Protein 1
Amino acid sequence: MKYRLVSGLETHVELATATKIFCGCTTAFGGSPNTHCCPVCTGQPGALPVLNKKVVEYAIRAGLATHCTINTTTHLDRKNYCYPDLPKAYQISQFDKPLCEHGYVELESGKRIGITRIHIEEDAGKLVHESGFTYVDYNRGGVPLIEIVSEPDISSPEEAKEYVEKLQLIMRYIGVSDCKMQEGSMRCDVNISVMPEGATEFGTRTEIKNMNSISYIEKAMAYEYERQIEVIEGGGKIVQATLRYDEHTGETSVMRTKEDAQDYRYFPEPDILTVVIPESKVEEIKNSLPELPTDKLHRYIDELKINPATAKLLYKYKRVCDFAERAFALGAGVKNTVNLIVGTLYSKLETEEDKEKFVLPVSADEMAALVKLVDDGKINITLAQKTLSAMAEEGKPVSAYIKPEDIAGMDDGELESICRQAVEANAGAVADFKAGKEKAIFALYGFVKKATQGKADIKKADEIIKKLILG
Ligand code: ADP
Ligand code: MG
Ligand code: ZN
């Protein structure tokens, strides 16, 4: 029998606010254990939380960017559980009235993965297991999170990957999180079930907790899909359970089953007032959103006519796009700009993170100045690549490499005289060309390029040469 895979993801995203959700402590990653803490975020008795406005704003940004409706009257709830990473024995979260609901993320295929809800909550501390002891570091306690819950609309590991990547991209574009999975600022709980092709009811699901790598998510889903089918085909039943994924064996194992599932006894948080957000604030946030990744990708392909493969290499990195778009605005041609970025600048930015940060000592102005020289046929692309490479390494302007007199000197008279020399020096190639071998003309281009150190406009040279040969 064939089985369909059904999956919904719960994604935790750490918000990039400077301070924690209910106190003024820093959210900076790392730091010596228990140095980014105070009585509020370590849950001391009597300490009172004060909701960070920025957290609400960032969560609304995330909601609007994923097409959610915003609940402008909302509140927080206590989720009770007892574990050493949470000294006050409850997490402040949202239960029945999440800040954002009913959105979606669109995949390249046009398929929409529904977003059930996005709510705000606080992160817990971190347990560190070392040489037989367990330590607890509360630096992360109270760091603001949004939890993005998807509908069970994901049907394959590939779709899960694309969904997570899209979410990552959206959150980075709108500036609410860096979404670094390896640092834990984005992590996913992956819910999976299978159902026979044609069935109308979902199967029982399992949930793999706390995945912090996209490739592990894909592998774990593929493994769990096969495992569930095997159980069902063997006459067994899937037991609803929380699983952990072992990245070394590539297998899942049970952490807890439904029998010992927790009852969190949610109730409204009494220390924080109902949150009322003016409609005008939502409107203001909506207006401040940048162009979103999918819209940008489509605009690059459809309007700017960038080829899809190149457009995909660009749109993933917001800073690169900002740089390219500034150069366009300064009059640089799209084609030469993007080719120089992807061909030359990317070779200086090896990792994803390098491209993400995009720190190179080349300004958009200088980039535009260089590209315009290529656009106008004053220099060829090879010289432009060499120049840009040097600019990116040395931080000097175009004028340090290409002097105005170099380009200005190449007037029509001079180019014609060089073309004449090319014709004289390549009698064989000229004869071949006249005999119909079109490619023979490349030998003459080569001569002109060499004689002008790449500064000749080859299109112009081509015209002159043909006139000289064919009369
Ligand atoms: P909780 O984990 O808090 O009990 P929910 O019932 O809200 O939560 O579901 C959590 C996630 O599980 C959601 O992303 C949802 O899409 C997904 N999900 C629900 N039912 C199934 C199912 N049968 N198969 C796969 N995923 C499911
Ligand atoms: Mg869950
Ligand atoms: Zn604190």
Protein 2
Amino acid sequence: MNVSRLLSDRVQQMEESATIRMAQRARDLNAQGIHVINLSVGEPDFDTPENIKNAAKEALDQGITHYTPVPGLMELRQAIAEKFKRDNGLEYKAQQIVVSNGAKQSIANVCLALLNPGDEVIIFSPFWVSYPEMVKMAEGVPVMVHAGIEQDFKVDPAQLEAAITDKTKMLLFSSPCNPTGSVYTRQELAAIAEVLEKHPDIVIVSDEIYEYINFGEKHFSIGSLPAMKDRTVTVNGFSKGFAMTGWRLGYIGAPGWLAEACSKVQGQFTSGANAFSQKAAAHAILHEISACTAMRDVFLTRRDLFLDKLRTIPGLKVNQPQGAFYVFPDVSTFFGKKYRDIQINDADDLSEYLLSEAHVSLVSGIPFGAPECIRMSYANAEDEILEAADRIKAALAKLEN
Ligand code: PMP
Ligand code: GLU
């Protein structure tokens, strides 16, 4: 059977998710009895807070086990509208909110609802691995605008301006950012908005899924700038801040016409998200923010512990991430070095080396658009993070010219 003739071009041209692949490799090695420390997947190690679990149990006991309206239970959409007003100064009606099976699906819906073949999507780079694949799946063309560690991984307005063409349909970025942990300030977003004001037909897709894991100034949503409001999709979800990755719930607030289009797409692909998860999520968003704050504080302690250790490693260039739970060091000084017969030419080689030699799983920067970097998640127990840093230090010290 000629499988490559059977499989669609679409799937053959698609990259596998590198974050998911590396996490699976760590699980496989652990199952073989090798103690691999898994810094590859972006997932809080905390269990979902007890009160949120209880709300789901109550929903099950009440028989909330049926199909839900495609864009979500009205109770949850109203709670999200209230959250947007409370936390972000964003006025969305419940009809402008679409709940999906994770923010991943939310973004895929938006791409499918907006893009025609050849439409360009500007993606701030480094970027989350799934963005370009979703854009390509919708036959759009990703256009990367890159900022390195010397810019704290943040794109400046002139770079954005230079990338805009008459084919630009969308701008897509995350803040706090996966993979860099960088956070765009209110002033930086206002400067970006100033450029966009000159180009009214570009939709801004602002992925704010790490909103509650922010160590700096109060989170700011670009959609709350009056000139951006009617053209911004604010993406958020429950996976990160509430430690609810397995519940599969994300959402958007969007202009009404676009929310309707996303709902139409979702109605043909997957329908409404899980019923009892939605009941628990409504409870979470209205009553459990303090649990997010408590987890955020723990992430901050871990960040500082991890950074202190990483900064003792010669050759590793690290910035000071202001949010999310990733560090994204520049490791280019190790390229061209080797250990025995293992030659390190790029970030892929280095991440393979650290997996085999240090038994630490992390993700190469290449699928995030930063071939000079590697991504490490510190959403792990303190002793694991510290042990991982020691192992990485020892393995890097073995590399020679
Ligand atoms: N956006 C970013 C930047 C992410 O890191 C993730 C994590 N996978 C998502 C969206 C999607 O999260 P989920 O589908 O779990 O809501
Ligand atoms: N967003 C997380 C990560 O970047 C989870 C895995 C995924 O969905 O990509 O690691």
